[in-house]
Design goal:
The chain has about 140 residues and is low in regular secondary structure. The protein has no helices and 2 strands.
C-alpha cells in the first residue's frame, strides 16, 4: 500500500468464539487485487489461519439472481447445496433465482430441452417473501 490507499474494511474481535480473531465482509470484483493485512492485537504473536471465501451470485438465497421471463443460462459447477431440501431430498449444488411475475396467469418454469452437461435437474419453487428454512412448505 502507498500513502492515500483506501482502507476498505477492518475488524478487531469480530469472532468471539472460541477466541478474539477477526472477520470482515466486503463486495469484491473479479480481476481486482486486494491486499489483506493480518497482525496481532497490541503486538500479540503466534500462528493462525487466513480463510477467504467468496459467495458466488446465486449460491445462496440471499444472493439470488434476478431473472425475467425467457431463457437464463445456468452453470452450477461452482455451487454448493445450502438451502433446505424438504420438497426434494435430491437437491444439491443449488443455485437461487428470483422471479417476480409481471402478469397474473399460469407460469411454467423448466429446464426441459436444455443444451449442456447438466441433464438431471431439480426445481423447487418457494413463496418469495423470505428465504426458506427447513420445514417451509413447497408450492
Amino acid at each position: 500500500p502507498v500513502a492515500g490507499d483506501a482502507c476498505l474494511t477492518s475488524d478487531d474481535d469480530g469472532c468471539t468464539s472460541p477466541n478474539f480473531s477477526s472477520t470482515v465482509g466486503l463486495s469484491v470484483t473479479a480481476g481486482t487485487t486486494y491486499l489483506v493485512q493480518v497482525g496481532g492485537w497490541n503486538g500479540a504473536q503466534g500462528a493462525s489461519d487466513l480463510n477467504i471465501s467468496v459467495t458466488i451470485p446465486g449460491d445462496t438465497c440471499a444472493d439470488a439472481i434476478t431473472v425475467a421471463p425467457g431463457t437464463t443460462p445456468v452453470d452450477n459447477s461452482a455451487q454448493i447445496a445450502d438451502g433446505p431440501n424438504d420438497c426434494d431430498s435430491n437437491m444439491g449444488a443449488d443455485m437461487w433465482f428470483s422471479y417476480t411475475a409481471t402478469e397474473t396467469g399460469d407460469a411454467t418454469i423448466e429446464t426441459c430441452g436444455s443444451a449442456g452437461t447438466l441433464d438431471d435437474t431439480v426445481l423447487i419453487v418457494y413463496d418469495g417473501a423470505a428465504c426458506p428454512v427447513a420445514g417451509d412448505a413447497c408450492l
